[in-house]
Each structure stands twice: as structure tokens, then as C-alpha cells.
Amino acid sequence: MLAAMDFDQLTVVLLVQRDDAPEMTAAEEDALQDAHMSFLTDLHEAGHLLAAGPLLDPTSPYRGLSILSAGVEEALALKEQDPAVQAGKYRLIALPWIVPGGAVTFSRTRFPRSIAEAFGD
User: Fold this and answer.
1) For residues 67 and 50, is the Cβ–Cβ distance under 8 A?
2) CA separation (Å) from 88 to 20, 39, 113?
3) CB-based burial label for 78 (10 Å; 0-12, 13-18, 19+)
4) 121 pLDDT exceeds 90?
5) So where are the chain's domains?
6) In the chain, which end has fewer C-beta atoms inside a 10 angstrom radius, N or C?
7) pLDDT digits (tens, 9 = 90+) for 25-72
8) Spatial contact of 99 and 10, defined as CB atoms under 8 Å apart
9) Could you give the CA distance from residue 79 to residue 83 in angstroms, rounded to a whole number?
């Protein structure tokens, strides 16, 4: 008889550009992006965020993807604190993701807190 398989339960959260997002100046956009990146770094350092990054299709409303080691409700509660979500720029879609235990692993890494840090400016 086969033993039951272990599964890892994660949550994938999509950042979706809102149609009714407020207009912002370039300086406001830059400041909000830096606040967003710093927030993601805090989530990663706290052990909630496993991976995150932008989605690069400029024609798509999907702007970013995060994978969290939390259930859907907790992941949404955490991600709703993102300054870019609170500013009304993005809405969230959270999807439960179940994979065979150990099939996907993530290493702790350093997340940049700003665009300048990401690009070495």
C-alpha cells in the first residue's frame, strides 16, 4: 500500500493594474514603486514572501506575481498592506497553489528596497 503524499500549500498572488487607478506624477510613481519594493523586502525578511517579481508584458493588466508561504486569506491580508495596493494602483488576485512536497524550493536572498538599489544607481 502506498503512503499518502505530502503536499506544500502556497499562495500565488497576482498584482493587477486597476482601470480606475489614480493619476500620478512620475515622481509619485517612483516613490510608490520604492515603497512597494521595500514592503516586499519586509515580507521576505519576515519569512512570508518566497518569491516576487514583475510580469513584463506591457499589454497585460497583470503587473506582478508573488508566492507566499501562507494560506489565501493570510496572503491577501499581508498583500493588502502593500503601499501600491493601498494607493489604489493595483488590485489582488490570490490563488491557492498545491505542489508535491519539496517539488519547489526557494532560497533566502536579498530583495532590493528601491529601483536605485536594484539597478545599482
Assistant:
1) yes
2) 8, 16, 21
3) buried
4) no
5) 13-100
6) N
7) 999 999 999 999 999 999 999 999 999 999 999 999 999 999 999 999
8) yes
9) 9
Cell representation of residue 115: 529601483
For the chain, where are the alpha helices, taking DSSP H only?
26-45, 72-79, 83-86, 115-119
Cβ 79 vs Cβ 92: under 8 Å = yes
Spatial distance between the Cα atoms of 40 and 35, rounded to a whole number of angstroms: 9
Number of CB atoms found within 10 A of residue 8's CB: 14
Quick one: pLDDT band at residue 1, thresholds 50, 70, 90?
Answer: low
Question: Domain 13-100 class?
Answer: alpha beta
